[in-house]
Specification:
Blueprint (H helix, E strand, L loop, with lengths): L2 H5 L4 E3 L2 E3 L6 E6 L4 E7 L3 H17 L7 H17 L1 H12 L3 H19 L9 E2 L5 E9 L2 E5 L5 H14 L3 E5 L9 H10 L6 E3 L4 H10 L3 E7 L2 H11 L5 E5 L5 E4 L5 H13 L11 E5 L3 H13 L19 H16 L3 E4 L17 E4 L6 H4 L6 E7 L2 H9 L3 E2 L1 E5 L3 H10 L4 E4 L14 E2 L2 E2 L7 H4 L1 E9 L9
Parallel strand pairs: 7-8, 7-10, 8-9, 10-11, 12-13, 12-18, 13-16, 15-16, 18-19
Antiparallel strand pairs: 1-2, 3-4, 5-6, 6-22, 11-21, 14-15, 17-20
Helix pairs in contact: 2-8, 3-5, 3-7, 4-5, 5-6, 10-11
The protein binds adenosine-5'-diphosphate.
The site of adenosine-5'-diphosphate has 17 residues, from helix 8 and helix 9.
């Protein structure tokens, strides 16, 4: 049973209840594999956001969660993880329908989301704070305290996974959360609210408000009672959020765009490099901020490597997300389809040569937002397709002569999220990793991102640390307590 079948329309989740918008306004959820409407979803406006934040604030002040024993919060979150696992197939089906992700991939992501919740449950019980050397008779210590209400704004490329990724650490350390999912993919996360209650989380601690960016998202960002924001999405929206947050000096955590260089050196294990490069370029239809969307190949080997790569890319199975043999589904929305095909046009106009794809693939159902795996060669670093984030299955291949040139090209974009290096020369791996200005570098292992490993976007790709024990810092602020315990008086006047 889908959310829409269960509730008629998909509601907000506020204060433990599924509620419509105060205005009654809704918007459609679309299946991107057909373009058909699959549900109506409540559209949150400032009044709805205000209700959700008030519920979060009241829950926070009650202390039922924020001051609960850390072991209790950990237990509830572990129970939540188990409930997600038990429901993974159903949530995965909803996710697949709403995003266009192949079904096996969507279900796997729900299970990964559960693992994230399990991991972050442990954050509730981590050591917190320090003591500092002080004068005789003084005792100084710090504690990291939850902010209160955290506003979480999430994109559409990994809806359920990112909802858990962003909110579990915030919840573990005692915050309340108001989550706004991307308007393109609201359905899977609508399931999460009910599960938090079933797990034993007090009503009002976890809230979801649906709606678009300029209305719903902006209201959440501007709300004075939201003390911390965590956002994953485009750099332009991140900039808008940062500007708005200045009004109340809010703490902001941003995970933004990327144009990840995937550098194949001549000494790489080519079989491994080609398989891995294919994965990082096209997995999730290229809709990942760390997608290896720029393939940098050493010039002396480029013909051979590119030919082998294009041949392998021809074998990618594009098809209906509900078919378990599909590897690549459609793009998430009509808007994204227009954007990606616009970039393909731009690549052609700009003088790059199409080595593969560039059009719509043959798929059984008409009307979906499918784009073929597309490879441009003869790309130069100044072209827009080599500089801007496309967020689709479109790869730009560039060539370089030596390490220095590879590093120069890799760094010559405004982003600095991730980079992949393919080499069997250990010295080269460390040298190049040191020179690349990016938050996470992968040698021979793109997208290796276990939940206990932190990272942070450099340049225009982000602000603040994500994952790992570092998330504890992200979702708490510091309080310092200086105690004079021997009655010493201040010697003044
Ligand atoms: P995209 O352009 O790929 O859709 P965005 O960064 O615009 O990516 O969207 C990511 C999330 O940010 C979505 O949940 C969207 O609704 C939200 N969003 C967009 N604009 C704003 C804004 N001005 N303020 C707050 N949230 C926004």
């Amino acid at each position: 049973m889908t959310v829409a079948e269960r509730t008629g329309t998909v509601s907000h989740f506020i204060g433990g209840d599924e509620v419509p918008s105060a205005s009654g306004r809704t918007f459609p959820a679309i299946d991107p594999s057909t373009g058909a409407e699959i549900a109506q979803v409540a559209f949150g406006e400032a009044e709805d956001v205000d209700r959700a934040v008030a519920a979060g604030r009241a829950a926070f002040e009650s202390g039922a969660w924020s001051r609960a024993a850390p072991g209790h919060r950990a237990t509830v979150l572990r129970r939540l993880a188990d409930l997600i696992r038990a429901d993974a197939e159903r949530i995965g089906r909803i996710e697949s329908m709403d995003t266009g992700k192949p079904i096996a991939q969507a279900t796997a992501e729900v299970n990964v989301a559960a693992d994230f919740v399990t991991y972050f449950a442990g954050h509730a019980e981590l050591p917190n704070g320090r003591t500092y050397p002080a004068d005789a008779g003084y005792f100084v210590y710090t504690v990291r305290e939850p902010y209160g209400v955290v506003g979480a704004i999430s994109p559409w490329n990994y809806p359920f996974l990112l909802a858990c990724w962003k909110t579990a650490p915030a919840l573990a350390v005692g915050n309340s959360v108001v989550l706004k999912m991307a308007e393109q993919t609201p359905l899977s996360t609508a399931e999460l609210g009910r599960l938090t209650l079933e797990a034993g989380m007090p009503a009002g601690v976890f809230n979801v408000v649906h709606g678009d960016g300029p209305t719903t998202g902006a209201a959440l960002v501007a709300h004075p009672q939201v003390k911390k924001l965590t956002f994953t999405g485009s750099t332009a929206t991140g900039q808008a959020i940062l500007r708005s947050a200045a009004d109340h000096i809010k703490s902001v955590h941003l995970e933004l765009g990327g144009k990840t260089p995937n550098i194949v050196f001549g000494d790489a294990d080519m079989e491994q490099a080609i398989a891995g490069s294919l994965f990082t370029a096209f997995y999730n239809t290229g809709q990942i901020c760390t997608s290896g969307s720029r393939l940098l190949v050493q010039r002396k080997d480029s013909d051979r490597v590119i030919e082998a790569f294009v041949e392998r890319a021809r074998g990618i199975r594009v098809g209906d997300p509900g078919d378990s043999t599909s590897q690549l589904g459609p793009l998430v929305s009509e808007e994204q389809f227009q954007r990606v095909t616009g970039y393909i046009e731009e690549g052609r106009r700009g003088g790059a040569r199409l080595a593969l794809g560039g059009g719509r693939p043959q798929v059984p159902v008409a009307g979906g937002y499918y784009v073929e795996p597309t490879i441009f060669v003869d790309v130069t670093p100044d072209m827009r397709i080599a500089r801007e984030e496309i967020f689709g299955p479109v790869l730009s291949v560039l060539t370089f002569d030596d390490e220095d040139e590879a590093v120069r090209i890799a760094n010559d974009v405004m982003y600095g999220l991730a980079a992949t290096i393919w080499t069997t020369d250990l010295g080269r791996a460390f040298r190049v990793a040191q020179k690349i200005d990016a938050g996470i570098i992968w040698t021979n292992c793109p997208h290796y991102l276990p939940v206990n490993v932190p990272y942070e976007g450099h340049k225009m790709s982000g602000l603040g640390e994500d994952l790992g024990v570092e998330a504890l810092q992200t979702f708490t602020h510091l309080k310092t307590h200086c105690v004079n315990f021997n009655g010493a008086r201040m010697a003044w006047a």
